[in-house]
Design goal:
Radius of gyration: 21 Å
Number of strands: 5
CATH architecture of the largest domain: 2-Layer Sandwich
Number of helices: 11
CATH class of the largest domain: Alpha Beta
Number of domains: 2
CATH topology of the largest domain: Alpha-D-Glucose-1,6-Bisphosphate, Chain A, domain 4
Mean pLDDT: 81
Strand order of the largest sheet: 1-5-4-3-2
Helix content: 40-55%
Distance between the termini: 54 Å
Strand content: 15-25%
């Protein structure tokens, strides 16, 4: 059974159960599909709000997209070409995949971003609003609460991010930390994951960067800063208190 037939079957089943019209039942079924989560092996945010690395990883997994959507990458790209998707917006493409082909919302976003990158409609790291993002992550041998404090505690933060000014938006210990960056338009979104009692992982997305060059620069910057953070938290070593490059960001 194709995914379209499966969608129609679910819509009719809901109509029989609720007495709703076809249009209303279809809208509710599609809404449920959009909220559907992905398997643990691929669970992450939609690529538009995260890293292009997520899309690259998915592109390497033909079996995953085939299993979850009923088609492989090249099949979806050919289908989108036939629909003249290069002339459509990101929102139009994703909505078409959901509404016409019953693709779950997360996968519709994934396919749309991958297609846009494949056809040169979007540069790697570029979001739908035209800005760019940079990502970095690090596993550090400390409890997750201590890793969170490295961002949330201003004195501790100064030891590995000298000169950086963060205007905190929200901080939910020990899970997430969001802040505006150095009084600029960009901002950081940080997530923390426990990997045991004495090990945790930090992942950062630096959003709203003005271009690909700025994204590449900040990606390198965060990788270097995370190396300093690891030395500081694991060994109490402040590898470099002076960071002129960081002061200007």
């Amino acid at each position: 059974m194709t995914r379209q037939k499966s969608l129609k079957s679910r819509v009719r089943a809901r109509m029989d159960k609720t007495g709703e019209s076809y249009t209303t039942a279809r809208r509710q079924v599609l809404g449920a599909s959009t909220r559907e989560s992905t398997p643990d092996t691929t669970r992450q945010e939609a690529p538009d709000s995260a890293s292009e690395n997520g899309v690259r990883a998915l592109r390497r997994s033909e079996a995953s997209v085939q299993e979850r959507t009923g088609r492989g990458w090249d099949q979806w790209f050919s289908l989108l070409d036939g629909w003249d998707a290069t002339s459509r917006t990101h929102t139009e493409i994703a909505a078409w995949l959901v509404e016409e082909h019953g693709v779950p919302g997360w996968w519709a976003q994934s396919i749309t971003v991958a297609y846009e990158q494949e056809r040169g409609m979007r540069a790697p790291g570029q979001r739908t609003d035209g800005t760019f993002s940079a990502n970095a992550s690090k596993t550090i041998a400390v409890p997750v609460q201590r890793l969170f404090e490295a961002f949330d505690d201003a004195d501790l933060r100064q030891q590995w991010l000298p000169g950086a000014r963060l205007d905190v938006r929200t901080a939910t210990p020990p899970k997430t930390f969001r802040a505006d960056w150095n009084g600029e338009a960009s901002r950081i979104v940080v997530g923390f994951t426990t990997m045991g009692e004495t090990k945790a992982r930090v992942a950062i997305e630096h959003e709203k960067l003005p271009g690909a060059e700025a994204a590449a620069e900040m990606k390198a910057y965060w990788r270097e800063r995370f190396a300093v953070l690891k030395q500081l938290l694991e060994h109490g070593v402040e590898r470099d208190r002076e960071d002129p490059a960081g002061q200007n960001r």
